[in-house]
Each structure stands twice: as structure tokens, then as C-alpha cells.
């Protein structure tokens, strides 16, 4: 790989800026100054330093974000803040994108990467990677709702969902006097507004929704809303786990 291509891909500047850095003796490869920006290197073997600081090369980035409500799962939006707007500039050079979508008003686990193949594997309907959500429902969730979800429910547009696992955490009397329920629901697909539409199909509404797990990857609860961190290699592998 060309030296200037590697450094520009990592966000250290434009090709012309990196060319100037090389001429000023700011770039070394294996301890030797390199004046020519088109110098070829092996990113996995050669040690590149800029101003004496080692440059870490990698092809892909993998981030876990605790998505806040009011933020859209997109790389660009004309009207609303996106999840990419929350990310530090050092990652933007990789041109990251969210793996799938969470509704604007939904919180929780969102993976952001530039690895298109991983994204495809996780989202592919053929892979059946499960996703777990926590939700608060405006009515009491009953045994018949659990049974309906286990068989799949019709959500309109000539579509019946795949079977889903619905678990009641607790039911309680809300301030308005109605009985609400806190639940977990596990689905293996990602139709538009799917969880909300499934509850609407059984006569209930979702008041709050948060994704807490994708595959075997659980949301790091130490992350505040809008915060993120890099995934470990073990966590990347967990993302595609089907048996949870």
C-alpha cells in the first residue's frame, strides 16, 4: 500500500498534506525518514510513525453505541442528528455506517462499522441472528399475547412475522391507573417498526423501546446514551451468534 494512501485513509490529512509532512521529515518507516509519499509499505509488517508517534493501521473498525432517542440510524440526514454525528473524527475516515437501524425514538445497542460483509451476515434473513429488546407496554401483557408471538403475528402489508419469544418481566399499575407491563421480546428479523407493529397487532402500544442484545453481543450498560466504544475481537464474534 502507498504510504500516503494509508495515512489519508486513517484521517491524518489529504494526500497533499501528507506529501508536505514527508518532505518535512515528519514520517518514518521502520525508523527511517521517508520523503516520498508514494513509498510502498506493508501495513501489517512495517512500523510507520508520524511525528514520532506510531501509526496503527487497520482496515475495519467496530463500535458499540448506546443510541439515544431522537437520533437517526443513518450516515446522513437533512433534518436530524445521526449516530455518525456522535462519532469522533478519527473514525470518520473509515466511512462507518450503522449495522441495521433503530427507530428514531428507540434507544440501545447499535453496532457501527465499515465492514460490509459482517453487516450483511448479521442482517441477512437467512442467518436468523436474534435481537432482544426491552420494552414498556401500555397494557398488561397476557398469556395469549405470548402464545400469539410464539406463532408469529400478522403486521399488515401481507406479512406475518416469524415466531418471536415474548417474556413478561413484571406488570404494574401505572400513574394513570392502567396496568402496564415490562417485557423482553426476541425477534430474528428486522421489519420496519416490527416490535411496535407486533404489539399493535395484539391491541397494545409500545411506550418505550430499547435494544439490549444482537446475537450474543449484549449492550454495555456502562455506556451512557450517545456514548460508544470499540468492540473486542471476542465481542465481534458474539455478534453473529445465533444460539443465545
Short description:
This is Pseudouridine synthase. The protein contains seven helices and 13 strands. It has 244 residues and is α+β, with helices and mostly antiparallel strands.
Provide structural commentary.
This protein is an alpha+beta fold and 244 residues long. The protein folds into three domains: 3-54, Structural Genomics Hypothetical 15.5 Kd Protein In mrcA-pckA Intergenic Region, Chain A; 62-126 and 216-239, 2-Layer Sandwich (Alpha-Beta Plaits); 131-214, Alpha-Beta Plaits, CATH 3.30.70. Helices cover 21% and strands 26% of the residues. It is built from seven helices and 13 strands. It has helices at 3-9, 15-23, 89-92, 116-123, 143-151, 194-201, 233-238; strands at residues 27-29, 32-33, 48-50, 53-54, 62-67, 97-98, 107-113, 131-137, 165-173, 179-187, 206-214, 217-218, 228-230. The strands form two sheets. Strands 5, 6, 7, 8, 9, 10, 11, 12 and 13 form a nine-stranded mixed beta sheet that branches. The model has no long low-confidence stretch (mean pLDDT 94).
Amino acid at each position: 500500500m502507498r504510504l500516503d494512501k494509508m495515512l489519508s485513509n486513517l484521517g491524518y490529512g489529504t494526500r497533499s498534506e501528507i506529501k508536505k509532512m514527508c518532505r518535512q521529515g515528519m514520517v518514518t518507516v521502520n525508523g527511517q525518514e521517508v520523503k516520498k509519499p508514494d513509498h510502498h509499505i506493508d501495513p501489517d509488517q512495517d512500523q510507520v510513525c508520524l511525528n514520532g508517534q506510531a501509526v496503527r493501521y487497520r482496515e475495519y473498525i467496530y463500535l458499540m453505541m448506546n443510541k439515544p432517542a431522537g437520533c437517526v440510524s443513518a450516515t446522513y440526514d437533512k433534518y436530524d442528528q445521526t449516530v455518525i454525528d456522535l462519532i469522533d473524527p478519527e473514525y470518520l475516515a473509515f466511512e462507518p455506517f450503522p449495522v441495521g437501524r433503530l427507530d428514531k425514538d428507540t434507544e440501545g445497542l447499535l453496532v457501527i462499522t465499515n465492514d460490509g460483509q459482517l453487516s450483511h451476515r448479521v442482517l441477512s434473513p437467512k442467518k436468523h441472528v436474534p435481537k432482544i429488546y426491552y420494552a414498556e407496554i401500555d397494557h398488561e401483557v397476557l398469556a395469549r399475547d405470548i402464545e400469539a408471538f410464539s406463532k408469529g403475528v400478522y403486521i399488515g402489508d401481507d406479512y406475518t412475522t416469524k415466531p418471536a419469544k415474548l417474556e413478561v418481566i413484571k406488570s404494574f399499575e401505572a400513574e394513570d391507573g392502567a396496568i402496564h407491563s415490562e417485557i423482553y421480546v426476541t425477534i430474528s428479523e428486522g421489519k420496519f417498526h416490527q416490535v411496535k407493529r407486533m404489539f399493535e397487532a395484539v391491541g397494545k402500544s409500545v411506550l418505550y423501546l430499547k435494544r439490549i442484545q444482537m446475537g450474543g453481543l449484549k449492550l454495555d450498560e456502562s455506556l451512557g446514551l450517545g456514548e460508544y466504544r470499540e468492540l473486542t475481537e471476542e465481542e465481534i464474534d458474539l455478534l453473529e451468534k445465533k444460539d443465545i
